[in-house]
Design goal:
The structure is a single chain. By secondary structure, the chain is mostly helical. The chain has one domain.
Length: about 140
């Protein structure tokens, strides 16, 4: 592979050719994409674990704050609970991907787990919104 570099500035542009040799990587060094079924399974398990731990943390933290409802929570508490869900999901994903002993398992585990934790937050919010909507429709 050759790369042409043109230096600008000075009296005249100079062109210089650099030869770069790229050696093929082993299959062991190249990051591999896990099976889609593994990704979905681990994201789902991480989402459930993140939701459960977040509920436990939320119950413990609400004992120290004056708020009894979600609408009364300070902004920093809502942010901390959502961040807790992503961190716990990342840890769960890491724990589930680590035994696979493949290249990039740590990165895949954290990424898929944190995504599962964020997904748990979104799913719970959507379900609560539907339940509230159904409850308000029955009152009318």
């Amino acid at each position: 592979m050759s790369v042409n570099i043109t230096k600008t500035g000075g009296s005249a542009p100079k062109e210089q050719t650099i030869n770069v040799t790229v050696a093929p990587q082993d299959g062991a060094d190249a990051p591999t994409l896990p099976a889609t079924s593994n990704l979905i399974l681990i994201a789902g398990v991480a989402a459930v674990v993140a939701w459960g731990v977040t509920q436990i943390v939320k119950a413990g933290v609400r004992g120290f704050t004056k708020s009894k409802k979600k609408t009364e929570d300070p902004w920093w508490l809502s942010m901390a609970l959502r961040l807790t869900s992503c961190v716990v999901g990342g840890c769960a994903g890491l724990a589930l991907f680590s035994p696979l002993e493949m290249s990039g398992a740590v990165e895949w585990g954290v990424a898929v787990g944190a995504g599962g934790g964020a997904l748990a937050t979104v799913i719970v919010a959507a379900i609560k919104s539907r339940i509230r909507g159904a409850g308000n429709a029955k009152k009318s």
